[in-house]
Amino acid sequence: HFPKVLLPMIYELSVLSQKLFLIIDFHLYFMFLTAREIGIRLAVGARARDVMRQFLTEAVLLSVLGGALGIATGYWLAPLLTKFFEFPTLISNSSVIMAFTVSAIIGIVFGFFPALKAANLDPIDALRYE
Which of 115, 102, 12 shows the shortest CA–CA distance to 66? Predict the structure, then answer.
């Protein structure tokens, strides 16, 4: 009985960690794609906190959008699970709010490092990126 409980938990943890690192990788890749734009913004007087705010806003919006798509998929799949597999499902308001909140927190936490890295770019070096 123990492996039946432990194996799904290990699987879920590995999937969660892959998703979280994918978020960081995506934002770091996006930072390198927009390094020239960041360099221009910093060169004409944008403050580091402005660049950081931009990246954190993008991270939170992407995470919340992903959370909203996940919630919508859950609303769509729940009746199908009940109908075809006779698996009772219940979607409570608290679970939806918690999913939405976790999505936003993940966006903030895992968007912070790429935002900090983008804000600390040297304008001259950032302008050299192609």
Answer: 102
Measuring CA to CA, which residue among 124, 65, 76 is closest to residue 99?
A: 65
**Closest C-alpha among 50, 41, 39 to residue 121:** 39
What secondary structure does DSSP assign to 40-79, as a single string? HHHHTT--HHHHHHHHHHHHHHHHHHHHHHHHHHHHHHHH
- The DSSP H or E segment spanning 127 is helix 123-127
pLDDT, tens digit, 9 for 90 and up, residues 54-106: 888 888 888 888 888 888 988 898 888 888 888 788 888 888 898 888 888 88
CA distance 51 to 38: 7
45: left (phi over 0), alpha (psi -120 to 50) or beta: left
Token look-up 């979607």 returns 91
Cβ partners under 8 Å of residue 80, min gap 6: none
Mean pLDDT, range 31-54, rounded to an integer = 88
